[in-house]
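ok so for the tutorial part 2 we go from a plain amino acid sequence to predicted structure tokens. step 1 is just haveing the sequence, like this:
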Amino acid sequence: MGKPSKIELEQALIKAGEMRERSQDPDFIAKSLLSLNYRFDVWQKVVAATKLYLHSGQDATEHSRLIKTLREAEKLDDINHDDERLGL
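step 2 — the prediction. this is what the tokens look like for a chain of 88 residues:
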């Protein structure tokens, strides 16, 4: 399976947004695509912050940025697992 081009991905995300707005997503494909794309963007920030931190000689400011992006990424899972933390 090939990777979609930038144009193809943009078109798919637009269509997925339209499907969600019209509540025409019976198998949750649009919801899944939009969610995974959002998660991917967040994790790309973590990768970029990690590379910058390592390249900068592990600078304290870059370390803080890296921790901030990791916390943002961790929140993605916290939203989906609230019941487990509460013991429900």
